[in-house]
Give the backbone structure.
Amino acid sequence: MKIEFLLNGNKTELEIEPQETLAQVLRDECRLTGLKVSCDVQVCGACTVLVDGLPVSSCTCLAYEAHDRRVETIEGLASPEGQLHPLQQAFIDEFAFQCAFCTPGMIMSAKSLLDENETVSEEDLIHHMDGNICRCTGYLPIVRAIKRAARTMGKAAPEQS
Ligand code: FES
Ligand code: FES
């Protein structure tokens, strides 16, 4: 079957098999290998991409569901000139990864939070990110990175005393 969708801002047409997942199509057909497949059962968040701005586990989303939708992956975040998205820069500045297997999914999930909200508190972000698992960092640097990006984007909620 044929699907058409907007992939990182580019109109994209593909011939797919009905049973193919979005993760398979993005990685194998589109060569966008930033998203990672780990659990393959919608538990870890490593495969997170945005579909119409919302985080989706691409390992369990069938590719045809992306038809006529807007899909964003980690590869689409930096500007064409190479300027990193504030989240990407904050993850570097806060050393918020070790093996980095979880990082693309973490960043895409955090992007949806920051895109959808005017202000984001630490409590909001911890709640929002609870579907993304990291085996390396202990999470604190990731929380710091998302808070840093929120400040950069003018979306940090005032700290509670
Ligand atoms: S690989 Fe998709 S949620 Fe874990
Ligand atoms: S940095 Fe290794 S799983 Fe998160």
